[in-house]
Design a protein that fits this description.
15 helices; Farnesyl Diphosphate Synthase; mainly alpha; homodimer
Chain lengths: 348, 348
């Protein structure tokens, strides 16, 4: 699968920026005192991560400024009125917010592992994980306050960051609520996905435009790009859970079905009269056989539910690419289009 | 004790503003969807609270603007350049941050009660309490972003708010760290108190000055006023735990000693050679007798430790009153002085 040229380009774009992003995280979130608190706060960020959102943010800066990729120092991005803006700080801020949400989510979902290493509440303890998340939360705002952007733009980026965090919390609450609800409409599911996952992509894409004082329609277009591609990413995740062999997935294929997790696929299937709750009868993912998953997937395919989700993800990616038309036609914009494609073409 | 004229004036000032503050909290943090999330988020704020910090904030606005108390709409406070500023939003934002920290602290400290009602993690569950706290966190930043202040001032208020939250987290981490440390110096304890408790007073006092575009020395003076009086408040809390009868305290007198909580008093006593760990031998507060507390207090008094803490609180209050000299001499400033006095003269 790594011979797909779009995927190659995206992975190269990510790779070319990852070193700078990691160095910036280290600079902006140093190991301060109290040391144990900051060790726990940095632990998950140091454990890795593709840095896809920061890459989106840095490419958006280059697309908006209409400069060749990697030609300008991200810490001193020029604006029309001569101000130098640290667009890297915006990218770091959002990566830190992402890390905070993962730490608190892992406590709430009781997930012992994250990125192949023990979750923060396992490596330390629940209290430390709560406090580490809280520390990352405000640190992200501190970093976003220091981009050097014009005050009105800096304030707007902070306002958007706060709104993003509120929406992520709302999305997480909806996700929990849906587990206890009799019926969830596909539109409601999409609203949840937008809040829980996609707003962070929207914010990552729009923030550099705000900081660089771009026109409102460019800011809005980039936000929409992130919302649409980020939603597609999550829907594709649901498809992959059912269609990719366990050894590539890194977890049991079909585990969403065992956990009774509602997805766009199961919600569509219910509307088609499929007995979703009876699709598999395993109690946990480890007792799930590949045959049982095959049979369940066959039923869902017959109901058109997997195709429905694939189509939805595909149409969201098309929308995200069309959102980008508000930006100048340049290499960075074309790489943002690639990333949107990659989010649904990736194998796992 | 309620016949003390300073206390009377302070309680009147708080009472006269509480209705407006509560209404503003309701307006700025409405019961939105998902409803259970916002119910849990609002639960502790609705359970009461004196609203001392918002009162400090509103009085600081009046002192800086040099207007008579309660003469100007807090939602439309005039500035020199004609901008109207919502100083109430700043006060609400900080009260919401305070509420978030209490919710997460109660989880970490495993405290079942708060303000006489079950803590949020008891009334709901731990996951909901984590998420409710996270929601309040970002909502506070959203509200602070909407004060209508000039962008540079709005951004500075957001930056200070973020720094305040980081310092509160650091203070909480230090507090936990001290429980496991062999030696803690009184200076380190004061640093912890400043972070954990006092910065929120500093921020509450300084925010209106920032929003109203006051000179830097006025902003700094109000911040220092809050730091000094807030630290005094916490030290006085430690004194009261030992010196006020249980029935007034609302909890067992001397409970800090049973919980081996280090305070300025115990740290001073250790330096004087007192065997602090052997002061009381009860395993929990309920098995602690008043005689045992009397004896322990007698030992601490003989070592000069209670007087040392009282003196420290007193000198901090004097400093906080002297900080205020950077402000115009008016009724609101005099009420801020009263509040500083009240923080250490209050009986319980």
């Amino acid at each position: 699968m790594t011979t797909d040229p779009t995927e190659e380009r995206v992975l190269a774009a990510v790779r070319e920026r990852r070193g700078q992003v990691n160095a910036a995280i280290d600079e902006d979130l140093p190991l301060a005192a109290p040391e144990r608190l900051y060790e726990a706060s940095r632990y998950l960020l140091k454990a890795g991560g593709k840095r896809l959102r920061p890459t989106v943010s840095l490419l958006a800066a280059e697309a908006v400024a209409d400069v060749p990729p990697l030609s300008v120092d991200y810490r001193a991005f020029p604006t029309a009125d001569g101000v130098k803006v640290d667009v890297m700080a915006g990218a770091v801020s959002l990566e830190i917010i992402q890390s905070f949400t993962l730490i608190h989510d892992d406590i709430m979902d009781d997930d012992p592992l994250r990125r192949g290493v023990p979750a923060v509440h396992e490596a330390y303890d629940v209290d430390t994980a709560i406090l580490a998340g809280d520390t990352l939360y405000s640190t992200a705002f501190e970093i976003m306050a220091e981009t050097g952007a014009a005050p009105a733009n800096g304030l707007e980026a902070m306002r958007m960051l706060a709104n993003t965090c509120t929406r992520i919390c709302e999305g997480q609450a909806l996700d929990v609520e849906f587990e206890h609800r009799k019926t969830v409409l596909p539109e409601e599911y999409l609203e949840m996905v937008e809040s829980k996952t996609a707003v962070l992509y929207g914010d990552a894409a729009a923030t550099p435009a705000i900081l660089l004082d771009a026109d409102d329609d460019v800011v809005d277009a980039l936000y929409d790009y992130g919302i649409h591609s980020g939603s597609a990413f999550q829907i594709q995740d649901d498809v992959l859970d059912l269609t990719v062999p366990s050894e590539h997935l890194g977890k049991q294929r079909g585990s969403d079905l065992v956990e009774n997790k509602e997805t766009l696929i199961t919600l569509h299937a219910r509307q088609q009269g499929v007995d979703v709750d009876g699709l598999v009868d395993a109690d946990d993912a480890t007792s799930l056989t590949d045959e049982a998953v095959e049979a369940a997937v066959g039923t869902l395919e017959q109901a058109g539910s997997i195709e429905y989700a694939r189509e939805k993800a595909r149409s969201l990616v098309e929308r995200s690419k069309s959102d980008l038309k508000a930006l100048p036609d340049n290499e960075a914009r074309s790489m943002l289009e690639d990333i949107a494609e990659y989010l649904i073409s990736r194998g796992y």
